[in-house]
Write a structure and sequence with these properties.
about 325 residues, eight-stranded mixed beta sheet, 8 helices, alpha/beta
Length: about 325
Amino acid sequence: MKRRPTARPDGRSSGRLRRTLLAGLVAAAVVLPVSAAASPSVPAPAPAVLGESAALPDRYAANLANLAEAARTAGNAGRNDRAAKLRAMEAGGGARFLAFDGRGKGRAIEVFGDLETADRVAVLVPGSDTTLDTYQRFRAGALALDQRLRAGHPRSAVVAWLGYDTPDTVGPAVLTTGRADGAAAELGAFLPRLARLAAPQAHLSLLCHSYGSVVCARTGTGSEVSDIALFGSPGTGSGSAAQLPTRARVWAGRGAADWISGVPHVRIAGVGFGTDPVDPAFGALPFAAGSGGHSDYLKPGTESLDNLAGIVLGDSPEVSRAHA
């Protein structure tokens, strides 16, 4: 009689690890064609130094001047591509930055709308490969969200928070929470300061795309944050919404054509991000994200943009019922 083959004791873990590694290969294969190379060697001045009591107009002016100097420095160094991208960020002198650092991959925190009068503020947190070299695609989403919000509620604002060194989509850092942990500390410290700059008792919402959802899920938030929306998320590194360090409502949505749905939701030896946030077992509130792909959530006219705006504006019941 033939003996039936027995499974190796580590077969399940080995299979999961292989699926996790496959996730990295899937991400690399899909995103590599659209990823732009960073410019870590581009020279730039040190960021402007401002005290906590600095008024918003002074912050905007100082950071815009620093941005203009960074563009001149890059041009003088023969880095004309970076210089052109920085000049585009100036928006003809009308851009408003709470922070700007042109060194390396760069960091920038830009405001859309009147922050001082806003009682609804969306903080947009980007995912991998978002740098000063790819900033315009991040800004385009922030602008679309700002226009959508203010059409329904003029006293709203959007803060595009490129406040961390995002991982490369084709590197090992994108498969772990390490980069997100450092970013979460930065974001957690920023949020109370932002609340003080907005209208009294303003409601802040975190809108977190792709790897940015890992950052948001690891950020401790206070009462100023009412909602956290995870979209295009690979997972958070936590098993459930209840485990996140926040009392805010946690939402999750994914577009029907988003390639990230094919990423295995496992976590082995610190690699991978675990439970899928759109899985009912995670416990997030669902919102409909439409038929778009991984880069389509904030495109004008999309269901995902409408529902993300609804979350920010407090239209939660309608957003929840929109889930299919």
